[in-house]
Amino acid sequence: MEQQVLDRLHDIVGPDGVVAHKSARSVYDCDGYTLEKAVPELVVLPHSTEEVAAVVKFLNKAKIAFVPRGAGTGLSGGCLPVEAPVMIGTSRLNKIVHIDLLNRYVVAQSGVVNLWVSNAVKEQGFQYAPDPSSQQACTIGGNIAENSGGPHTLKYGVTTNHVLGLEVVLPDGEIVTLGGTVEDVPGYDLRGITIGAEGTFGIVTQAALKLTRQPQAYRTFLAVFESVHHATQTVSGIIASGIVPAALEMMDTLIIQAIEEAFHFGFPTDAGAVLIIEIDGLAASLDPQTERIQAICKHNQAREVRIARDDAERMALWKSRKRAFGAIGRLSPNYCTQDGVVPRTKVPDILQRITEVSEKYQLRIANVFHAGDGNIHPILMYDERNADETRRVVQAGKEILNACVDLGGSLTGEHGIGVEKMGQMPLIFSPEDLMVMTQLRSVFNPANLCNPNKIIPTPGGCIDVTTPRRQVPL
Amino acid sequence: MENPSFVDHEKFFDCVHCGLCLASCPTYVELGTETDSPRGRIVLMRALQEGHAQLNDEVVQHLDLCLGCRACETACPSGVQYGALIEGARPFIEEHYRRPVLERGKRWLMNKTFPNPWGARVFALFLKVGAALGLARFARAEAIPATLRYWFGLLPERGSVSASPLLEHYPAIGEKRHTVAVLSGCVMSTVFGATNQATVKVLRHNGCEVLIPKAQSCCGALLLHNGEKQTALALAKRNIDVFDQLDIDALIINAAGCGAMMKEYGELFKDDPAYRDKAARLTEKMKDVAEFVGGLTLRPPTREVRAKATYHDACHLAHGQGVREQPRALLRAIPGLELTNLPESDWCCGSAGTYNLTQPEMAARLLERKVGHIQATQADVVVTGNPGCLMQIRAGLRQSGLPITAVHTIDLLAGAYED
């Protein structure tokens, strides 16, 4: 990086706001998606919206591309610096600015950790509903970029349903407010199209987040089945009965074994599949629903249906589920989590296809997913030191996503396209669709300096991952 | 360049780079730099071991800044043994990296002081003189530089250094239930004599015969944290020899830092045929005092302690040993005591062994954060299970001029038993 660029950025954010040392930058070479790595030439850590704006304004003028980064927990390489020399981290924008319980919203900076928001209003009986499994570390800014979901999206919706307004630094450095702190702001929903744009429309610096009342009561079940087929039948049965569970999660044998080893919750390691079913709401409404859910499980040959006895047991169950991805580290040095969607009834079909892929490529694949909305998360295990295995993982992942599309589904439920699935966008979008998206992006990001080479494949800009470039590059 | 291997290489592959540890790491949350996060440090350590990175100022700075609090291990879903990784890197740094002269002097002094009986005595004398002169009151003197004020704040109260030394044997009070030994500890015995007395008192009141062999030594934890592995192992061997020959049900440790380290004796000596079995056997018997007493059917204390208390989880107790509920249960058993929740109770206070001596700036930042939370609870007393935390938190409370005291869990519990 040229000295004068460095000097100018120093002037804006101060010397402690620039990470320039080669070794230090190397830790920013990937996020939770580790198949592809690239070290930024410079990492800038602004302390305020104004600093973000000044940095972006300068970079725009100097025609230097940049990429935003939150906590780096993403799973599609959304913050990978591909031909973008400067990385702008939001880790210092970590203040909850304002809490308004009467109007039920919180204003938080984009580097605030998801769980901190709920923790800040917990005692008063509120919560921020979107709960991605990485919520203990992932940031609000990243959640907005990826329009993150989580186990409870089945009932509560995803990030976009809980964001009232955004403060965004546009790619030319202008600070704008999209939406507001009230519902239904008139005009085009620019807030809506920015959420899920994976950081290609600008850098979100602050957001007004809707608060939801904590449910009065919960009932959480662990239902054990001999086969995935029976578990899927149960999922369909529950939905068909008119019950809207807060969460409906499925795990297969391999993942049950991994998380049992990690957390010792008491999962049956010989089961074909387990379902975590949660209902919430008014205490009086839960007993009749409980009876119906138990009946549906029994009807579909559940071996056992356990109910969490108290809040501690419920929390332990969710902790096991939410940390399932990481628990895979006990089985394998590396993994790649896929994120596809199929119609709910096609879950057994996609799992069959995944089994075939697993055999074809000689890879271990564990499945843990949001069964209620057909959002699958096959976890492909590999060892990055084995180049051939790594190549097979990339191929197998693509084949699974192709199968999702074949079955009438989609490429991503909640992890985003990032760099990972860019190449497969043409599977579900026509060239015209992609052109329209590019034109829309140009409205916000005309020079394509803000998070380039993401989401929309462009000739020459699309990277085809075939080999791990290196181990730990420094 | 291929650097010599300082830790079992496979341990690096437990980390799947998910990043769930980030927000649990105090230095990352304070600084916002991923080089100061557990995941980032693992990347740096792996690069060192694989020879992709040189042992330069930049890398060492980030590894030095790690508190070793192991909050990341609690957060990690993948079972990364972060403690083992950083403890492996530290001796490697000490051996191959040349620190600035002042820094080297400071570390040399610390490594010579604590494990050496004479060094410990000089240290104790220093603290006693400071305490007798009441120097702690200068913690708030505006005219003195901040660092010096902080040092004064670390000095003990007048009373606590003058407690009478422990005897080698105490009989149980009432019906005898167990025979236990107590680690008297280097810092504990010099600066926290009163807490050692309190430990003996609580154990005796709960039917324990207590043995305190004079031949025992410092546990070696402070040395290990500073990368002085060989000296630490020698001290550990001495303790194993001394305690293993006693016929005891448990070895009681009242300093969380010592407990966390000693519970690793089994792992430390797993490749040493002469000590492997002895170490494993003794490790089984090691219990933090709150863990042990909390596991007994408590003989209910009868004296009222009218106060509002809040509990700070010492890192080496909560993250290092998984002891979280037992100390709180003991406090709830004290008649008249109201226990209130401390936000971020399991965040490091910045003490972290000798961290407050080696990294005073970050230690002060974390202390400020901790004191802010303590103040907000409006408690009269903050309770914790580690001498380092006690000194650190006391210094913070003094600097802020808050009328809040900091005591060991067992001090408060002992006060609730008749003399």
Helix/strand class of chain B: alpha/beta
Give the biggest sheet of chain B: 5 strands, mixed
CATH class of the domain at 96-213 in chain A, anyone? Alpha Beta
With strands numbered from the N-terminus, the spatial order across the biggest sheet of chain B is: 1-3-2-4-5
Q: What's the Cα radius of gyration of chain B?
A: 21 Å
Helix/strand-derived category of chain A reads alpha+beta
Biggest sheet: strand arrangement of chain A = 15-12-14-13-18-20-16
**Helical segment tally of chain B?**
22
Describe the sheet with the most strands of chain A: 7 strands, antiparallel
The pLDDT mean of chain A sits at: 92
As for the number of domains of chain B, it is: 3
* CATH fold name of the domain at 96-213 in chain A: Uridine Diphospho-n-acetylenolpyruvylglucosamine Reductase, domain 3
Q: Please name the CATH architecture of the largest domain in chain B.
A: 3-Layer(aba) Sandwich
CATH architecture of the domain at 96-213 in chain A, please? 2-Layer Sandwich
Q: What is the overall number of helices of chain A? A: 16
**Which shape of chain A, going by the Cα principal axes?**
globular
The stretches of 5 or more residues of chain A where confidence is low (pLDDT under 50) are: 460-474
**CATH first level of the largest domain in chain B:** Alpha Beta
Number of strands of chain A: 20
What value does the average pLDDT of chain B take? 90
Please, what is the oligomeric state?
Answer: heterodimer
Give a short summary of the structure:
The complex is a heterodimer of chains A (474) and B (419). Chain A is of the alpha+beta class. Chain A has helices spanning 3-13, 22-26, 49-61, 114-121, 140-146, 153-156, 190-194, 228-240, 253-263, 283-299, 311-322, 324-327, 347-361, 387-406, 425-428, 431-444, and strands at residues 18-19, 42-44, 66-69, 86-89, 96-100, 105-109, 126-127, 163-169, 175-179, 203-210, 212-213, 217-225, 247-252, 273-281, 304-307, 334-337, 340-341, 365-370, 375-376, 378-382.
